[in-house]
């Protein structure tokens, strides 16, 4: 293995930061696309911004499936890399890519058929429903390209290279950012397409990103080998990937599903509040990018060290990542306390929308360390081949705390109480997940020699 890709030796914190650094810039580029869409669509009016807010939980939920598939692929590949099994690594990578295509093409068709019903269930109606439908029809066509890119990039990261996937993410995002205002408002011979233009820019950028990611896995790293083999072996590989990928997908989907519940609850307060909640959650998604980078980086770190029988390094990696989450959350809280109103105002079409979004940003960010701990712990146990534990950590935050507390708060008072409930949910989940995950890793280190496992 290339020494620069070997994560089983050297300082744990340095390896973790070496992975997370490029990923942070890559994820920042991807998240900036959401902000750019929000910014330019916001110029079309409050209804258009509300339509984008209704589409956000659907898009994030389906993107979670791609994260799950990429987590499954990264888990099996990273452990094979840690054991030094090159042939097995290539076989698993090939089958993971085949599985991705087999799953996502039919899912895209199903999503298009059920789109109107799902949007109505979330509370969209009238002109807002029409705009949300127009946006999501094009977005769905980009979904297979997104997933192929994410799974391919995850396999490259699993081998220890975080720089190349991040470069692809940045390139795709830059193309999207450049194309979006042209397609939304028109320029020269290009007609103004409105909210559909934002979705079309995403589609074009994802096609290019998928081509670049496939180049890495097929030609540069040669992770894809001959497809001529028995279906039985493919199904065995696919079973390993799905055994981790499906729980990981459910875990990743739990956050957007929680946002969807909150959106449905807040919808009764009017389109301005829905638009504000959409602005705030998009800003939040961008603000937590270091935590997302750590959650994406913990998998290769844990997987390679587990495969290489360096279990003691797993606990050190988790402690380091948790500490970084706490520090970043404090910085976010201070930034939004001082600048929440002007930042929200830059992305809101009306003063009332900006004021409501700022209220969320003044309350929730102080608790985001808890969310970071939950997603990092989930990523670590997915990489260990313990996806049900990873799913449990995700559901602890969403199903045990977030959804029940938001529902209760919505019956007590207005949106401010709901935001306070979200903050409490994050904090309680973070404390519980941190304690349990570290306990289980210590027990894993003790039991590995006897084969007891977690």
Q: Describe it for me?
A:
By secondary structure, this protein is an all-alpha fold. The chain has one domain. The protein is 84% helix and 0% strand. The protein contains 14 helices and no strands. It has helices spanning 12-42, 46-82, 86-122, 126-158, 163-185, 195-220, 231-266, 271-287, 289-307, 312-347, 351-363, 368-383, 387-412, 415-447. The two termini are 28 Å apart.
Write the layout of secondary structure elements.
Layout: H1 12-42, H2 46-82, H3 86-122, H4 126-158, H5 163-185, H6 195-220, H7 231-266, H8 271-287, H9 289-307, H10 312-347, H11 351-363, H12 368-383, H13 387-412, H14 415-447
Question: What count of structural domains?
Answer: 1
> Structural class from helices and strands?
mainly alpha
Mean pLDDT: 82
Strand content: under 5%
Q: DSSP helix count? A: 14
- The 3D shape can be described as globular
Rg over CA atoms: 21 Å
Number of strands: 0
Q: Flag low-confidence runs.
A: none
Order of helices and strands: HHHHHHHHHHHHHH
Distance between the termini: 28 Å
The helix fraction, in percent, is: over 70%
Main beta-sheet strand count, sense and barrel state? none
């Amino acid at each position: 293995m290339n020494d620069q890709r070997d994560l089983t030796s050297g300082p744990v914190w340095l390896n973790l930061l070496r992975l997370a650094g490029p990923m942070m810039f890559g994820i920042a580029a991807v998240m900036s696309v959401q902000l750019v869409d929000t910014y330019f669509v916001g110029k079309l009016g409050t209804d258009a911004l509300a339509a984008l807010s209704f589409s956000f939980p659907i898009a994030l939920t389906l993107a979670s499936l791609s994260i799950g598939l990429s987590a499954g692929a990264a888990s099996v590949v990273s452990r094979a890399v840690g054991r030094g099994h090159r042939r097995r690594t290539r076989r698993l990578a090939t089958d993971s890519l085949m599985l991705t295509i087999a799953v996502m093409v039919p899912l895209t068709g199903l999503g298009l058929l059920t789109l109107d019903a799902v949007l109505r269930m979330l509370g969209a109606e009238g002109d807002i429903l029409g705009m949300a439908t127009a946006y999501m029809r094009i977005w769905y066509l980009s979904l297979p390209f997104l997933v192929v890119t994410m799974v391919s990039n995850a396999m490259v990261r699993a081998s220890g290279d975080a720089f190349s996937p991040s470069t692809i993410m940045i390139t795709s995002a830059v193309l999207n950012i450049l194309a979006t205002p042209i397609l939304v408002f028109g320029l020269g011979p290009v007609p103004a397409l409105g909210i559909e233009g934002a979705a079309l820019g995403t589609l074009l950028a994802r096609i290019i990103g998928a081509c670049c990611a496939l180049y890495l896995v097929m030609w540069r790293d040669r992770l894809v080998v001959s497809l001529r083999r028995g279906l039985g072996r493919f199904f065995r590989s696919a079973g390993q990937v799905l055994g981790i990928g499906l729980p990981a997908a459910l875990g990743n989907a739990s956050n957007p599903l929680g946002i969807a519940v909150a959106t449905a609850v807040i919808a009764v307060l009017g389109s301005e509040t829905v638009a504000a909640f959409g602005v705030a959650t998009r800003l939040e998604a961008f603000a937590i990018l270091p935590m997302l980078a750590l959650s994406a980086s913990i998998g290769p770190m844990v997987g390679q060290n587990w495969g290489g029988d360096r279990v003691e390094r797993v606990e050190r990696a988790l402690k380091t990542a948790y500490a970084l989450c706490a520090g970043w959350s404090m910085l976010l809280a201070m930034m939004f306390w001082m600048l929440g109103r002007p930042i929200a105002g830059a992305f809101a079409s009306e003063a009332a929308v900006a004021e409501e979004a700022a209220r969320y940003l003044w309350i929730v960010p102080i608790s985001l360390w808890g969310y970071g701990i939950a997603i990092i712990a989930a990523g670590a146990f997915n990489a260990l081949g313990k996806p049900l534990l990873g799913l449990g950590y995700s559901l602890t935050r969403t199903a045990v705390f977030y959804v029940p507390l938001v529902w209760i708060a919505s019956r007590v008072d207005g949106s401010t109480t709901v935001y306070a409930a979200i903050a409490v949910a994050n904090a309680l989940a973070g404390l519980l997940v941190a304690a349990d995950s570290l306990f289980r890793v210590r027990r894993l280190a003790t039991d590995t020699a006897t084969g007891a496992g977690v």
